[in-house]
Amino acid sequence: MTEVLTIARENGVATLALARPDKLNALTAELHAALRDALAQCADDESVRVVVLTGAGRAFSAGQDLTEDLPRDEAGRIDLGPPLARDYNPLIRTLIDYPKVTIAALNGPAVGASMNIALACDIVVAARSAYLQEAFAKIALIPDAGGTWLLPRIVGPKRAMALMLTAEPVPADEAKALGLVHAVWDDAAFAGEARAFAERLAAGPALAYRLTKQALAKSFDNDVDAQLVLEAALQREAGFSEDFAEGIAAFREKRAPRYTGR
Ligand code: T3D
């Protein structure tokens, strides 16, 4: 059987590549299951510090596979409740809560649910020819996979509304200007630049990154006082770490730090 997801581990980076290139890496139940397993494995694998999600071939992913058999209700209508409850919603929760740095490396278009999966990663980087598209309205659906929560928090409610109602593609450079994408590289350089970027993060202080993610996850719910209390608690934890001691030592000795994530 052909693998629908490939996993490569190198220099602290696990690269998970959606691998149905003939179908622009459209998401099936099988691909969701493989992704779920891979994310769980990488969370437990101490040698992995950064997870990169990307696509094989010319697309990141074209969203839900529209040719897959979908469940039906008693009246015979397509019932999207089960795949959302089983696959999409847990995936978005997993990505938002993920204990390691996640990078969506958009080698090509990220469409429908796959745009929102990318946005649920910590950092999005893109090849110049890539685009992001909340394509749902084109097939008379509403944006799911966390899109209605994620997108307005990134670009503001008006832009989110327009992007969702028009279902227009957002080219990579425009997505960068909107804050959806952190870096855009030319297509020919993309794979190498994305790998180097991920490896730089993998050499960073993994424990401090995890705690930073925990702090940011609360920042839109907490008031300033609650956030200051949370920062103090998490900063104490960071301060107790071997990495902090190493960071201080490296600074004093004028050398690069060697972080272990402890
Ligand atoms: O299950 C649930 O819970 C529902 C959840 C839904 C979440 C969603 O993601 S809804 C959004 C679903 N996705 C789409 O609506 C996008 C559909 N695809 C497209 O509009 C276009 O393919 C693209 C704009 C993404 C790219 O266009 P283009 O011209 O570059 O490529 P293409 O020729 O259309 O596609 C290449 C092949 O991929 C083609 O197969 P073929 O004809 O060569 O055998 C095409 O059918 C296939 N493909 C592309 N997208 C999908 C797909 N096959 C299945 N599902 C797809 N989503």
UniProtKB/TrEMBL annotation:
Signal peptide from the UniProt entry: none
**Transmembrane residues, as ranges?**
none
Q: Which domain of life is it from?
A: Bacteria
Check the record and name the InterPro entries matching this protein.
Answer: ClpP/crotonase-like_dom_sf, Enoyl-CoA_hydra/iso, Enoyl-CoA_hydra_C
| GO terms of molecular function | isomerase activity
| Keywords, alphabetical | Isomerase
PANTHER family reported for this sequence: EG:BACN32G11.4 PROTEIN, ENOYL-COA HYDRATASE
What's this protein's family per the entry?
Belongs to the enoyl-CoA hydratase/isomerase family.
The protein in question is named 2-(1,2-epoxy-1,2-dihydrophenyl)acetyl-CoA isomerase
